[in-house]
Specification:
The structure holds three protein chains of three kinds. Chain A has helices at residues 7-33, 42-70, 76-81, 92-95, 101-122, 128-157, 160-173, 185-192, 203-216, 220-227, 243-252, 254-258. By secondary structure, chain A is mainly α. Chain A has a single domain (9-258), classed as Ferritin (Up-down Bundle), CATH 1.20.1260.10. Chain A is globular. The termini of chain A are far apart. By secondary structure, chain B is mainly α. Chain C is flat. The longest helix of chain C has 12 residues, at 33-44. Chain C has one domain (4-86): Ubiquitin-like (UB roll) (Roll). The termini of chain C are far apart. The chains are: A mainly alpha, B mainly alpha, C alpha+beta. At the A-B interface, α1, α2, α3, α6 and α7 of A face α2, α3, α11 and α12 of B.
Chain lengths: 264, 333, 96
């Protein structure tokens, strides 16, 4: 049903959309930062922390933009630290527990593939701020994609144990990938006006890239078994989350909640 | 087997003529006296090598274990800006550990051996990291006091006689200066905040002050290695000299915070031109070093767990690299 | 073989800006060249220290022996005629 696009509606949609992009980046950045100090080897500890930093940097730019759209007293921090789980619009994929290194790199690979395709298109957005943010972020993401893709291949191909762990991660993560390319109402409305990216259009190139890398990782058979599995978990983009998000927020927001109204 | 010689590894040649008091040792000491750097493949006394390995690896371990108390607060940092800077800081420490392990590796020990020494308790790390980080203010106090003390110790090592160690330290000191500023900024913000924030700030200073003063090690008369290390220019100032500089610096800086250092005997002594300060609790120092600090077990077990859980990852990467190399060889053949 | 999981050591060289030589900056461990390249990027260029990276497995570098330094390098000491300042020319001569 096409509803009349009032400027007020477009404004709300835009805020929701920017928050959705920001929440995705923040929550995955937060998850990845749980590795800092605990990585499998020093060099990779540094690598995963870099990715966490890139994602948190993207989240900050997006929250700052969302705060401007909201007006009033909103800031990047009030948006990150003072909303409850049902206000968060991130995909479920990014909030799932940290998992092992196989789970971490495969999730990153799924997400970076999506984010890469998304940001590439978003550089052409009618919204100049979003286009500029995407322009900067796409460079970072293309490195994340390269890094995570190589790790997927390395672990899929490496030893029996690493292969087994990749299969387990694939099985666990797969049902959360569909949400990446299923649009929320605010997204589809904005894509029609040339502001947002129509994520269903990313599904084919996403599957193509994923298939190509998983084949190289010797995980083609496991993937094929899953491709027929069309039941996908979703809800995150509209604020219905897994149990994980509440715990993330409890930890992340603890200081701001305990000492309200303080400067840090 | 590669036939090439690793340029950064000490060749395993032991010329019997190169014993203590020999020509080689005299020439070595002359170079050190003339401020010439010793490089990995140059002749050096075995004791010098061992002392350096101990000191550099201990330093590297401190960076790595030091990631843990601060890493504690990454997921709870109170703003996005603080979260990002804290990740960057803890990540720098991983980098510093890496530079130092690399410097030690030029002396003929592998990183695996050093890590094994850490995990088995044969190697030490700075005991300051066995104290807990209980509030957000601790992140500020660590930056200001612990990193401040570390910089005080490290700047002179930039001129250390061993080339790779000196070069690693130059890099580390450059990066480290943001850490101390970051820490002080956290405390400064707290000191201007609510009553609860001010309390948090003073509490953290109270808990981190004495352990930081202890970071410079035992008094000079109780520090057996100092004389030899100074002669070799591995160490350039004594523990007590550096400690005094640190106390003088902090006694001034704490005024900017409008906070107090927890030492009733701290006061400026015009006849010495330095601050006098109270006695150090050496019993606590030795207890913490010997494993009885509040967090010794947690810190070590966190490191061991990360290493063990990473084993299958490291093996998989090695196996993949070997398969790729074999494929390439086949293609060439 | 001692330890299968011990990744080999690599030396890292970085060109800090366009027009300058690559310079040795340190070393790191990596399982293969691709990983060594990425690790070098993540470890040694976090503060925009570079525009180009070389990595080479440490075992592939051949180095001169410090024991032979005298025979290697001292013979160049007395060949001052290789330097422009060796030649005496009048100050009035310009552009040379």
């Amino acid at each position: 049903m096409e509803t009349l696009q009032t400027p007020g509606r477009e404004m709300t949609d835009l805020t929701d959309y920017v928050l959705h992009l920001a929440d995705n980046a923040l929550i995955l950045g937060h998850r990845n930062s749980e590795w800092t100090g605990h990585g499998p080897v020093l060099e990779q500890d540094i690598a995963i922390s870099n990715i966490a930093l890139d994602l948190i940097g993207q989240a900050r730019m997006l929250y700052q933009y969302a705060a401007r759209l909201c007006g009033g007293t909103q800031t990047e921090d009030s948006l990150a630290y003072l909303r409850d789980a049902w206000d968060f619009k991130n995909c479920l994929l990014v909030e799932l527990g940290r998992g092992d290194w196989a789970f971490t790199v495969l999730r990153q690979f799924f997400f970076s593939t999506y984010q890469y395709l998304l940001y590439q298109k978003l550089t052409g957005s009618r919204d100049a701020t979003l286009a500029a943010i995407a322009e900067k972020a796409v460079k970072e993401v293309s490195y994340h994609l390269r890094w995570s893709g190589e790790w997927v291949v390395r672990l899929g191909d490496g030893t029996q144990e690493s292969h087994r762990r990749m299969e387990a991660a694939l099985l666990e993560l797969w049902a959360y990938t569909g949400e990446l390319t299923t649009d929320a109402p605010y997204e589809s409305r904005l894509s029609r006006s040339g502001v947002a990216v129509a994520v269903p259009s990313l599904q084919v190139p996403w599957t193509q890239k994923v298939t190509e890398v998983l084949r190289e990782a010797d995980l083609r058979l496991s993937l094929e078994a899953l491709l027929g599995n069309t039941w996908m978990q979703q809800g995150g983009k509209l604020g219905t989350h897994t149990e994980h998000l509440g715990f993330i927020l409890a930890e992340m927001q603890y200081m701001q909640r305990t000492y309200p109204g303080s400067n840090w | 087997m590669p036939t090439a010689t690793n340029p950064n590894k000490q060749p395993v040649i032991q010329d019997p003529a190169c014993q203590a008091g020999s020509d080689a040792e005299l020439r070595f000491q002359q170079k050190v006296d003339n401020d010439l750097k010793i490089e990995p493949r140059d002749w050096m006394p075995e004791k010098y090598r061992q002392t350096l390995i101990r000191q550099i690896s201990q330093h590297a371990h401190s960076e790595i274990v030091g990631m843990l108390p601060e890493g504690n607060w990454i997921t709870r940092a109170p703003s996005l800006r603080r979260k990002a800077t804290l990740i960057a800081k803890v990540q720098d420490e991983a980098g510093h550990g890496l530079y130092l392990y690399s410097a030690a590796e030029t002396l003929g020990i592998s990183r695996d051996e050093m890590i094994d020494q850490l995990h088995s308790g044969r190697a030490k790390y700075s005991s300051i990291f066995n104290y807990p980080t209980l509030t957000w203010a601790d992140i500020g106090a660590i930056g200001w006091l612990v990193d401040g003390a570390a910089i005080m110790n490290q700047v002179p090592i930039c001129r250390c006689s061993y080339g790779p160690y000196a070069r690693a330290m130059v890099r580390i000191c450059k990066e480290e200066s943001f850490h101390q500023r970051q820490g002080f900024e956290i405390l400064l913000t707290l000191s201007k905040g609510t009553e609860a924030q001010k309390r948090m700030c003073q509490d953290a200073i109270n808990r981190w002050w004495w352990p930081s003063v202890m970071m410079f090690g035992p008094h000079d008369e109780a520090s057996p290695h100092t004389a030899q290390s100074m002669k070799w220019k591995i160490k350039r100032f004594s523990n007590d000299e550096l400690r005094q500089r640190f106390v003088d610096m902090c006694a001034q800086q704490v005024k900017v915070l409008c906070m107090e250092l927890p030492d009733p005997e701290l006061r400026y002594n015009p006849s010495r031109g330095h601050y006098d300060f109270g006695p150090i609790d050496w019993q606590e120092f030795h207890q913490v070093i010997n494993g009885n600090g509040p967090c010794n077990r947690e810190r070590l077990s966190a490191r061991i767990r990360a290493h063990q859980e990473g084993q299958w990852v490291r093996e998989a990467a090695t196996a993949h690299a070997a398969k790729q190399a074999a494929k390439l060889e086949k293609q060439v053949a | 073989m001692t330890n299968q999981q011990n990744w080999p050591l690599w030396e890292v060289f970085i060109r800090s800006k366009q027009g300058l030589d690559h310079k040795h900056v340190g070393s790191l461990h990596a399982a293969d060249a691709g990983m060594a390249m990425e690790n070098a990027r993540d470890v040694y260029t976090r503060r925009q220290e570079g525009v180009s990276i070389w990595v080479v497995e440490s075992a592939h570098i051949h180095a001169s022996n410090p024991e032979e330094a005298e025979s290697f390098f001292d013979p160049a000491n007395d060949k001052v005629y290789r330097h422009p300042t060796f030649y005496n020319l009048p100050d009035s001569l310009k552009n040379m």
